[in-house]
Specification:
Order of helices and strands: EEHEEEEHHEHHHH
Shape: rod-shaped
Low-confidence stretches: 377-382
Radius of gyration: 40 Å
């Protein structure tokens, strides 16, 4: 029969135990305990509190708790190390127990690693081969959470999406950071995209693909000389953008705000600009004329105080548009649809309006000096 090794502790303790080979008799066991622990054993218990009086019931590797007559006292756990290693999605993080438990005492992490034994405690997760606690979450979004618990400040790389951090904060119950993240997300959504953001999207997509920039904020962005064909800018905020020399052909600009934008020399073939706002925009030398026959639709557009001098607007649809005080000098407006358009105080000097439809247009105080061809209107000027 092989030897049985046991470890004896004083009642109520888990430290300073003595390991030895189990003797063959009860009396020899008590003597061994006395020699090793320096106490007269009256009662011997297993770690579940069961009192042992028969030596044959003791198994190999059992822990024995010895008293001098008092009842069993549950031993206090060893004080855990103050340093904890977490394996979060395959990435290791080492931190102190106090970091995880002090700032957010009711959070999931605090409950997992708190030393008290109240109802808030969770059982820690499984550990890997290195003894690190396994947590199946994204390390990218967990790291800012841990930094917040360490310093009290939200610190994260600029390439990390705050929405992901917010979801982690909600999962782990880090409540104090949630309002800060929600405010940050609102502010981030209001920050205009930059030229770099747009270029990053362009280089990942073929020019025939319809990129969706619908409703985005591009205010003040420098998008000059970029190939922006086929992009959906519907409802986008493009105030004061720099679009000089850019190619916006076949873009959707429906109800977009391009007020006070510089679009000089841009290509606008087949553009869809229904009810867009171009008030005060500089659009000199723009080209709307598609040799292939497609026509730009600028119906209902706001071009008040816009400067379109020397632009080629052949066949463009400007029905019921507003061009009050706009500069259309020397423009090619052949076959353009200007029916119902408000051209009050608009300067059309030197423009070509051959076969243009001006039915019902408001031409009050409009300027028509040096016209290339006589006006042809099927309905009287109102």
């Amino acid at each position: 029969m092989s030897e049985k090794k046991i470890t004896a502790y004083k009642n109520g303790q888990i430290a300073n135990g003595e390991e030895f080979v189990l003797p063959s008799s009860w009396e020899e066991l008590k003597k061994e305990i006395y020699l090793r622990l320096n106490i007269l054993p009256e009662k011997v218990f297993l770690n579940d509190g069961t009192e042992i009086k028969d030596i044959t019931l003791i198994r190999h590797k059992d822990d024995l708790y010895v008293s001098m007559g008092e009842n069993f006292i549950k031993p206090k756990n060893k004080k855990p190390s103050d340093w904890i290693t977490l394996n979060v999605g395959g990435k290791y993080f080492t931190t102190s127990r106090s970091t995880l438990t002090s700032k957010e005492p009711t959070s999931m992490l605090a409950r997992m690693f708190a030393e008290s034994e109240d109802n808030y405690l969770f059982i820690p997760s499984n550990v890997d081969a290195n003894g690190a606690y396994l947590i199946d979450r994204s390390p990218t979004y967990f790291e800012p959470i841990l930094n917040y618990l360490r310093s009290g400040h939200l610190i994260y790389d600029t390439n990390v999406n705050p929405n992901g951090i917010l979801q982690e904060a909600k999962f782990f119950g880090i409540d104090s950071i949630i309002p800060q993240l929600e405010n940050l997300i609102v502010q981030t959504n209001d920050v205009p995209l930059t030229r770099r953001n747009v270029i990053d999207a362009l280089i990942k997509s073929p020019y025939t693909a319809e990129l969706r920039f619908q409703g985005v904020n591009l205010a003040g962005a420098d998008l000059s000389k970029l190939d922006l064909r086929y992009i959906n800018f519907k409802y986008a905020n493009m105030q004061k953008c720099k679009l000089t020399g850019s190619n916006l052909s076949w873009c959707c600009l429906e109800r977009a705000d391009l007020s006070y934008t510089n679009i000089d020399g841009a290509q606008l073939l087949g553009v869809k600009g229904l009810c867009a706002n171009f008030e005060g925009a500089s659009m000199r030398n723009c080209n709307f004329n598609d040799p292939g026959g497609s026509r730009s639709n600028m119906e209902g557009v706001n071009l008040k105080f816009a400067d379109l001098e020397e632009s080629d607007m052949c066949g463009v649809n400007l029905r019921v548009a507003t061009l009050k005080n706009a500069n259309l000098q020397n423009c090619n407006l052949r076959a353009a649809v200007l029916a119902g358009t408000d051209l009050e105080k608009c300067d059309l000097s030197g423009s070509d309006l051959h076969e243009a439809n001006l039915r019902g247009a408001n031409l009050k105080d409009a300027t028509f000096e040096l016209m290339l061809t006589p006006l042809h209107m099927s309905q009287a000027i109102r």
